[in-house]
């Protein structure tokens, strides 16, 4: 709609509904600004934010004074206010009802994985997910490419962000070792050898990771590192990355060598890596597991969704990386 | 072909759909089902709705579940009065906002009251541990506080001065613990006043008819054979007592 002022979105990209909203805004080129609210740091509990949203939750949308909470309400509002393609939230009652049905059901089916505090509960939540995934495959995706029809809709957006969260959800206190797993990437092996040769590493442990790799797919992380190690990359870029890593680790009081090692290990354990990110009180840990591993129907659905969303999907994650860098630099 | 609606009026979302359809004179074929008896697990019901949830409707070949989705569909299809689901996008967003929030708030905490106070003791033969009960009551009260402070505030209804789907969905949820014997409106004059307004708007007769089952729930559960609730045991243990 011409002449509309930009909307403001209050987001924490650790949260799945926030990512869904950001992807929707970007993909549909809706003019917007983002204010980041770090739930881990309690920024949702400040008096200012509480005034904005007494529920102390994200996402929140501020459309020039009209403040709206609840991601599905926000997505529906944006879909109907802006000139987005019909398939997102179709006007035809029977088609719209399908998206409404999914959005309502969505509330009860996905356990709040990002908020779980210990491994046992997280494991239980993953088991409960099985029934949900069965339903997605056998009912929603039975005869159509996307959850509510032949084209992507708000339903797919909400679902895919939840499924990504299962990769990164789960919390546990303390640190843990992970066993080294072989890698296919020869570049990474070179990097590993380089580090060891430089005697920069002592043990293979995961410790604090200031790096948001947990929010990327394993492929993206691997891709990022491979690019970094590519001889055509300016050496300065690689050096500055390593220097940054050292600096932030030391500032956080942690050994930069183990940080680099963690990064390396996270990449090489593509299917299951654990990461902790800096937190003032409790370092959460991520599972890195792909819950769709044995579900080809859902895997192809997910690829279709990610293809349809392409840049905006990746951008939601690169933004997270930038945030983390800034946060790490402040430590 | 008539619109078929599969409803069990013990269930909150079934009541909201029932009230909405009746209030708006939407003709339907009332298919009364019993969730206690496990109708939702039957093969017959599976053909209507794979999600195996009530309420469910069958409008010709079109099947739909989820009360919120059903009411939005009916509102559109039968051109109900605007105030139920306003065409104005910001007012509509407010209705959607409430309908979204309530899923993980009042709906969950209110439902728990019925289970904890009546159904679990009947099914398992023991009372729910005091700490769990106290936490559940506290969660429910917190939800009610948020409802009053954030959604209702000083307005007549949730979205303004007219009743909408939001109020309908809210009232049926809040009545559930009443059925369990809780005096929800004690010390909550604002909530009580809102409830009276909603009941008046819906029509006292229709409101009372829809709530007759749940308001006599205590007696019904007293005389119920615990074996009826046998199939709920695994769910109870997983969702409520873990």
UniProtKB/TrEMBL annotation, chain A:
GST C-terminal domain residues: 92-204
UniProt entry tagged with the keyword Cytoplasm: yes
One Pfam family of this chain: GST_N_2
Keywords: Cytoplasm
UniProt-listed InterPro entries: Glutathione-S-Trfase_C-like, Glutathione-S-Trfase_C_sf, Glutathione_S-Trfase, Glutathione_S-Trfase_N, GST_C, GST_N_Theta, GST_Theta, Thioredoxin-like_sf
Lineage, broadest ranks: Eukaryota, Metazoa, Chordata, Craniata, Vertebrata
Protein name: Glutathione S-transferase theta-1
Residue ranges constituting the GST N-terminal domain according to the UniProt record: 5-86
Location of this chain's protein in the cell: Cytoplasm
From TrEMBL, chain B:
Enzyme Commission number, as recorded: 2.5.1.18
InterPro entries xref list: Glutathione-S-Trfase_C-like (IPR010987), Glutathione-S-Trfase_C_sf (IPR036282), Glutathione_S-Trfase (IPR040079), Glutathione_S-Trfase_N (IPR004045), GST_C (IPR004046), GST_C_Theta (IPR040077), GST_N_Theta (IPR040075), GST_Theta (IPR051369)
Top EC class, one word: transferase
Oligomeric form and interacting partners: Homodimer.
Stored CDD domains: GST_C_Theta, GST_N_Theta
Lineage: Eukaryota, Metazoa, Chordata, Craniata, Vertebrata
Domain of life, source organism: Eukaryota
Location(s) in or outside the cell: Cytoplasm
Family as reported in the entry's similarity comment: Belongs to the GST superfamily. Theta family.
GO BP annotations listed: glutathione metabolic process
Protein name in UniProt: glutathione transferase
UniProt-listed Gene3D superfamilies: 1.20.1050.10, Glutaredoxin
GO molecular function, one term: glutathione transferase activity
PANTHER family: GLUTATHIONE S-TRANSFERASE THETA-1, PTHR43917
């Amino acid at each position: 709609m011409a002449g509309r002022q930009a909307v403001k979105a209050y987001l924490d990209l650790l949260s799945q509904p926030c990512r869904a909203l950001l992807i929707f805004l970007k993909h549909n080129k809706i003019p917007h600004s983002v204010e980041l609210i770090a739930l881990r740091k309690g920024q949702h509990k400040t008096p200012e934010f509480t005034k904005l949203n007494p529920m102390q939750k994200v996402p929140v949308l501020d459309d020039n004074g009209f403040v709206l909470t609840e991601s599905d309400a926000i997505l529906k509002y944006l879909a109907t206010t802006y000139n987005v393609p019909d398939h997102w939230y179709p006007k035809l009652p029977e088609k719209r009802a399908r998206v409404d049905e999914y959005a309502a059901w969505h509330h009860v089916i996905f356990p709040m994985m990002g908020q779980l505090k210990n491994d046992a509960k997280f494991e239980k939540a993953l088991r409960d997910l099985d029934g949900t995934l069965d339903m997605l495959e056998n009912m929603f995706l039975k005869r159509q490419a996307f959850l509510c029809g032949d084209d992507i809709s708000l339903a797919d957006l909400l679902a895919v962000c939840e499924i990504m969260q299962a990769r990164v959800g789960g919390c546990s206190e303390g640190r843990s070792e992970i066993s080294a797993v072989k890698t296919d990437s020869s570049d990474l092996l070179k990097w590993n050898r380089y580090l060891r040769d430089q005697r920069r590493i002592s043990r293979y442990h995961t410790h604090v990771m200031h790096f948001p790799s947990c929010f990327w797919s394993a492929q993206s992380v691997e891709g990022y590192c491979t690019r970094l190690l590519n001889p055509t990359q300016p050496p300065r870029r690689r050096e500055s990355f390593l220097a940054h890593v050292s600096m932030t680790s030391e500032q956080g009081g942690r050994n930069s060598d183990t940080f680099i090692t963690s990064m390396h290990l996270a990449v090489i354990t593509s299917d299951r890596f654990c990461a902790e990110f800096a937190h003032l009180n409790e370092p959460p840990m991520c599972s890195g597991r792909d819950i769709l591993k044995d579900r080809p129907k859902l895997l192809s659905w997910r690829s279709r969704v990610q293809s349809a969303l392409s840049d905006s999907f990746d951008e939601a994650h690169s933004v997270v990386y930038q945030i983390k860098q800034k946060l790490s630099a402040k430590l | 072909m008539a619109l078929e609606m599969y409803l069990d009026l013990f269930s909150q979302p079934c009541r909201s759909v029932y009230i909405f359809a009746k209030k708006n004179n939407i003709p339907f074929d009332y298919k009364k089902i019993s969730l206690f008896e496990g109708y939702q697990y039957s093969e017959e019901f599976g053909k209507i709705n794979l999600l195996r949830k009530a309420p469910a409707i069958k409008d010709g070949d079109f099947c739909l579940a989820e009360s919120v989705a059903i009411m939005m569909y009916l509102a559109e299809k039968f051109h109900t009065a605007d105030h139920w689901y306003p065409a104005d996008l910001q007012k509509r967003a407010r209705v959607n906002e409430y309908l979204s929030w309530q899923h993980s708030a009042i709906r969950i905490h209110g439902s728990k009251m019925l289970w904890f106070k009546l159904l679990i003791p009947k099914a398992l033969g023991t009372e729910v541990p005091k700490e769990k009960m106290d936490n559940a009551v506290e969660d429910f009260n917190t939800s009610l506080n948020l409802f009053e402070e954030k959604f209702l505030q000083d307005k007549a209804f949730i979205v303004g001065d007219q009743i909408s789907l939001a109020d309908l969905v809210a009232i049926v949820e809040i009545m559930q613990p009443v059925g369990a014997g809780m005096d929800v409106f004690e010390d909550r004059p604002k909530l009580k006043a809102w409830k009276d307004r909603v009941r008046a708007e819906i029509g006292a007769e229709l409101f009372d008819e829809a709530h007759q089952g749940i308001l006599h729930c205590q007696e019904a559960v007293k005389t119920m054979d615990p074996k009826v609730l046998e199939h709920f045991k695994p769910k109870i243990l997983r969702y409520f007592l873990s």
